Amino acid sequence: MQRSPSPTVPQRRRRRAFTSAILTIGLALTPLAFIADSASAAVPQFPDNIVIFPDRDFVSVEGYSSHEGEVALVEVTRAGVGVVGSARAEVSGTDVAFEVNHPGGICWGAGTGLDVTPDIKAGDVVSITFPDGSRDTTTTSSATVTQDMVLDSATRTVTVEGSFGADVNPDFLEQRIIQPDLVDLIGRRSISAIPGPLVPAPKGGYSSSLEFPTPGTFLATYVFDTLNAAQVAAAASLGERAMSWEVQDVDGNRQGLTIAEFGEAGGPGFGGCPAGPGDQGSPTGTASVVRSGGSALVKWTPVAAVPTADPVTGYSIEAVGAAANGQQTTQGVRVGPGVTQVTLNGLDASASYTFEVRSMAGAKLSVPFALGGGATGDTTPPTLTLSPAPAADGTAVEANAVAVASNGQVFFTTDGSPAISGDLPSDNAQLLTGTSIPINAPTTLKIAAFDQVGNFTLAEGSYTPVVVPLPAKPTGLAGTATQSSVALTWNNDSSVNGWQVTVYNATGTPLATQPPVTTVPRQTVSGLSPGTTYGFTVKARNAAGFGPESDLLTSQTNAATDRITISTARWKSGDFRVVGTGDLLGAVIQLHRVNADGSIGPAITGATAQVVAAAPPGIGDWDIRLRNGAAPATNPGRIYARSSAGGVAGPFNVSQ
To answer: Are residues 351 and 420 in the same domain?
Structure first.
């Protein structure tokens, strides 16, 4: 049963600089390393996210408005197997960039040819890659509900049990029940339990807790104000969810999110999507047959293997004659998995045949890919035209591609060798699957077009790529600074295929000479020193090479804030103590409660301390302890620490 996903955890929107490509710069005294997004992958940063629904084999890509209009590649990779699912889609620029295997979205295999819906499992890595090489990943979590929820009518209590592996941080785990019928009873369709003891829901109607009775297991408990609400919640069909995430930022945004939906079924999310892992497919790429008298040359494109199915062990090729007296004659061969063409001899030159190509996985044959065989008697050669046409005197014609038009099947070579051998395509000839042949270097094209009875037309010519002038220097270079980075943007130029940024120190000395190339007009230089002035230039690249650098842009990074941590936090009646570290002596630390949405809440009265010197050098300690009447009356639950110098630590669970 397929349903629309419920909203993920409410997240506060905030602005951020473009991060389509990132350059990492060390301190001025150390060698610098430039690293584009394509060189490393990480959990997405808010407002971008990858949300995995493994039970439905469904992925939701959120945000990425900075890549609006770009075509992104989503891949599901399994350890020891490789890519088991993929799709390409255009980023919408709205809150949901696109969805894979969900109504209104795209199917697995869209734009990639890997036509299989992957059975997404715990540990599978779902990645998104953009044209500039930047890449984010989410690893599918092992957290899951393990059985139907249980209702205790006497206590109005509903419990949900589940399990998780070592990959899950229990603090980054939440259990939810989705039941639309609860709206009329408690004012909401979704109820949740987060780590900690039983506490009332902020808007009332029930109390909940999430505890871990044994390592690797969780127990969510819901106590409702009314028996009716408890009974309605327990009646939810496919409503028990385990939500876990890899990273939580200081604003409480949950990144790298997996939502396991107990009882949901996987497979194609809507009509027309490919089936799940199973049998290998037939070679349904391009295939062709060229007949000459009593023989036929059959060519095909190998199967795009389904990673989780049995491997292809070969191909079966048969010529099937027309039915006579209720019977059909067949003649064929079987070949190994690396073969892509075969000649069938001994055919009746006057008969018509259908040629079938099947893939084999052991003794199991795929559905056939049938090709019409035609009949003899036609002596009209096929048409064949090239654009631009070859020069009559044999000189090279400038072109980046040669368009080919024919009413036959076209075979060609680009190394000057013949495209035809006798009256059949040569062993070196390639079947033209599109409408043009790219010219990337001086090339001698030899082309043969065949019809289905073996008639052919030949053409050849010399071509060389169009000479392209160097691009002009880029304009509009601007930057937005943070403490350790500067996000650069410049005017786009559709005639170029990349840009290269150079970084200078305040004296004009280049800090690196070979940064990566970005294919979009933006790049973020990170790893910079706070409060420091840097210079930046950018130059464009096309087929002819790099053009001149832009005018120099100077930008100063923001001043640094201090860094603080929370080491321990404990509460018991009449005694509340929190201990941590800080790197700025004299800074004042104030403790705050955590709001229901995970953001920093109100200050805890009297919970302040100053960072004092401690070993090792450069690190300080702070210690806040409230006793008796000064201590909070109940366990604060989760807390943040905030420094007077700007540093923040948390959220942190207070133990009891």
So the answer is: no
